[in-house]
Amino acid sequence: MSKVTERLYNGLVKENPTFVLMLGMCPTLAVTTSAINGLGMGLTTAAVLALSNMIISVFRKIIPNRVRIPAFIVIIASFVTVIQLLLEAYIPALNDALGVYIPLIVVNCIILGRAESYAYFNPPIPSLFDGVGMGLGFTVALTCIGAVRELLGAGTIFGFGVMPDSYTPIGIFVLAPGAFFVLACLTALQNYIKLKGEKAGKDRSRFQSGCNEDCMNCSDSGCARRFYDTGAEKKEGEN
Question: Quick check: 1 pLDDT over 80?
Answer without folding.
Answer: no
